[in-house]
Amino acid sequence: MPEARALLPEVRRRVATLIEGRADLTELSFDLRRAGSSPLGGIAEMKAIQARLDDMLEWFRDQGIELKGFAPFLIDFPAELDGVSVRLCWLEGEPALDWYHRSDLGIAGRRRLPG
User: Fold this and answer.
1) What is the mean pLDDT of residues 8-14?
2) What is the pTM of this model?
3) 90 with 83: CB under 8 angstroms?
4) Under a CB-based contact definition with an 8 Å cutoff, are residues 75 and 68 in contact?
5) pLDDT, tens only, 46-100
6) Burial class for 29, CB neighbours closer than 10 Å (0-12, 13-18, 19+)
7) Within 13 Å of residue 71, how many CA atoms lie on the same side as its CB?
8) What is the count of structural domains for the chain?
9) Is the peptide bond before 78 cis (omega within 30 degrees of 0)?
10) Which domain covers residue 27, as residue numbers?
């Protein structure tokens, strides 16, 4: 658990950058479908944003962090709590890593971390 909490500031910094890219990709994709053009560019720019986001997401996998959702970002840190396999879960916008769920339950079993 201390390792996950130590990573959270870097996670939050990286997610903030990913949110910007996610917004650009969403706007660009919508404009291209709707109007065929966008102030953000064309298909080449859209592909470049997608590639950049994929590269940025690789960092999470390299840290052993599981990305469960992209909009909003939902991230799980594998952990153990009282001998039980759990996932410490962080949802975009949360100020701290305060929640967990049993690994076999998913977010529907989300509880506040004790103490």
Assistant:
1) 96
2) 0.88
3) no
4) yes
5) 999 999 999 999 999 999 999 999 999 999 999 999 999 999 999 999 999 999 9
6) middle
7) 7
8) 1
9) no
10) 2-112
